[in-house]
């Protein structure tokens, strides 16, 4: 038996012994997604990860993804033990939006409703009126705009720009971006599109405008996966982290899937669209946290109480 199989078996028994469930994001390694699927866990986008963790009866949630996903799970279910394979797995959007600076920015616009992306720290969520993920961001802002509210949005400027164009809302934007999606390039995508005229283009809205504007479908990871399953096309060009190709290939084995071109192309890497923090999650550190109980997520209770208000608005809105 190889190391991989041995680790997979060990993790399966540890999950069972400890009444723990594995929740993984689409961008994590295929082996983690396979484990979640085979053990009654869940693989999804960030909104559904939050919902699943909240509703599942297991006493321990093991969150394979990045830090904000573990924190969200803990805030929503403080009575549960939340473990993560790697506590250093962060996100450039979170790093680029320190709570004190963001709070000072909000203070400059006291008449704006503060809407933040889920890819933020608990303290930033605590300062916000609403939290949203990419799957409901447009709908929430549309709803607020229809109520006559002005929006302060953070941290992803590309997603903010997309929401503003979709809703016509008056929005001020924080200047943050995702290091993975930022690399997709409009001109190169045009060239690839010309080479594959039968392909549809699927784009995550953290990508720059020049890429989003060429999309046939713009949406969260779940929406892009659903497009591959349901749309009648022989090929797709996908502008998001290539971790999602595991599920896309599973869902639509006959379709031709191409990675959208990035600036990071090299001889060894035709598209370098993979989040370095998602990549920190692996079989070894997953087995280790289950064996030792290390890497438990804690959130300051006062911050968690505040953040819960804006997170619950998100869940109630999407219910
Ligand atoms: P989704 O909510 O679409 O899964 O996105 C999370 C994320 O981090 C995208 O980079
Ligand atoms: Fe953050 Fe981008 Fe990684 Fe998603 S892909 S976790 S937005 S750095």
UniProtKB/TrEMBL annotation:
Show the catalytic activity.
Answer: iminosuccinate + dihydroxyacetone phosphate = quinolinate + phosphate + 2 H2O + H(+)
Please give the chief subcellular localization of this protein. Answer: cytoplasm
Gene Ontology biological process terms from the UniProt entry: 'de novo' NAD+ biosynthetic process from L-aspartate
Q: Which domain of life is it from?
A: Bacteria
MF terms (GO), sorted A to Z: 4 iron, 4 sulfur cluster binding; metal ion binding; quinolinate synthetase A activity
Q: Which InterPro entries match?
A: NadA, NadA_sf
Tell me where in or outside the cell this protein is found: Cytoplasm
Kindly indicate whether the keyword Transcription belongs to this entry: no
Q: Which GO terms describe its cellular component?
A: cytosol
CC cofactor: [4Fe-4S] cluster
E.C. code: 2.5.1.72
Q: In which pathway does it act?
A: Cofactor biosynthesis; NAD(+) biosynthesis; quinolinate from iminoaspartate: step 1/1
Q: Where do transmembrane segments lie in this chain?
A: none
SUPFAM superfamilies, alphabetized: NadA-like
What role does it play?
Catalyzes the condensation of iminoaspartate with dihydroxyacetone phosphate to form quinolinate.
Q: What is this protein called?
A: Quinolinate synthase
What is the native source organism of this protein?
Alkalilimnicola ehrlichii
